[in-house]
Structures are given as structure tokens and as C-alpha cells.
Amino acid sequence: MKKKQSKKKTKNNKKKNFSEKAAFSNLENTTNTATIPKQSSRGIPKYVADRMARRIFFTAGIPTILGMSVFVVSYIIVTRNIAEIPPSSTIAISALFFLLGLAGLSFGILSASWDKEPGSFFGIENIPMNIQRAKAAFKPATQNFEENG
Predict the structure, then answer these.
(1) Rounded to whole angstroms, how far apart are CA atoms 55 and 108?
(2) By the 8 A CB rule, do 130 and 112 touch?
(3) Quick one: which of 93, 61, 95, 99 has its CA closest to 77?
(4) Could you point out which of 10, 33, 130, 135 has its C-alpha 20 to 30 Å from the C-alpha of 25?
(5) CA angle, 131 then 136 then 141, to 5°
(6) Could you tell me the residue ranges of all domains in the chain?
(7) What is the sign of the dihedral through the CA atoms of 44, 48, 53 and 58?
(8) CA distance 142 to 108
């Protein structure tokens, strides 16, 4: 059974609710006028991220799918007595495809052009510049400040 609250407590709650409403209305008024959309220079632009995703899909996705399909194909060949495949060769071929997918992941990220217009088909010319960008992103903020100053 609930306990009845005294009138004194309910009056305090009403005053508190009123002050919270006033505080939040003032907050909304100040944030609406002060909010100005800023163009951020940090991060990866959307068109570059889309370009990276497409490259990653082809250079990492396809070898990864092939690496998984090696197990299925090997199983079908062995169960239907088409050929005798040792498990070690199945694992080695699958590992090769997974390593190729890992290399493709790095290549897909590093070969994407940061220009508005897409670069070349393979994008090999963008790799050195993107490696420099990655190194600069991992430097501590104080080092970046000292270089600019």
C-alpha cells in the first residue's frame, strides 16, 4: 500500500518542476540561437569513405568469401569421393585467401583517392600520400602543433 505524501512535499515538488521547466526553456532558447553549423576539417569525407568501401568490398570481400568457400568445396570433393584432399592443404589454401583479404583491406583503404573526382582504377599513386596522412593522424597533438608553429 502506498503512503500518502504530505502537502508540504507536493508543494516543494511543484516548485521544483516549475524551476526545471524554466531552466530547460532557457537552455533551449540559448542553444537555438548559438548553434551554427561548422564545417569540420577532421575525419574522412563521405565520398572518400564510400570510395574506400567499394575498394574494400572487391579487394577484401571477394578473397574472404573464397577463403570460406574453400572449406565447402573441399568438403563436397571429399564426401563424394572425387579426390582425397588432406585437411592441411584445405587450411593452407583457406589461410592464403584470408591473408589476401587482409592485404586487400589495407590496399582498399590506402589506395582511395581523397579528391572529389575518383582517381585511377587501381589507385597505386595514392598509397604514399595516404600513408603520410595515417602517420600524421597518429602523431600526438603536441607534435602537430609544434610543426605548424
Answers:
(1) 5
(2) yes
(3) 93
(4) 10
(5) 165
(6) 46-148
(7) negative
(8) 30
Residue 10 grid cell: 507536493
pLDDT digits over 90-125, tens only? 999 999 999 999 999 999 989 888 888 877 888 888
Within a 13 Å sphere around the CA of 46, how many CA atoms are in the beta-carbon half?
Answer: 0
Return the HEC string of 41-63.
Answer: CCCCCHHHHHHHHHHHHHHHHHH
| Each residue's pLDDT tens digit, 77-86 | 999 999 999 9
The neighbour count for residue 51, using CB atoms within 10 Å, is: 21
- Quote the pTM value: 0.58
- Grid cell in block for residue 136: 600524421
**Which residue is associated with the grid cell 518542476?**
17
Q: How many whole angstroms separate alpha carbon 27 and alpha carbon 30?
A: 5
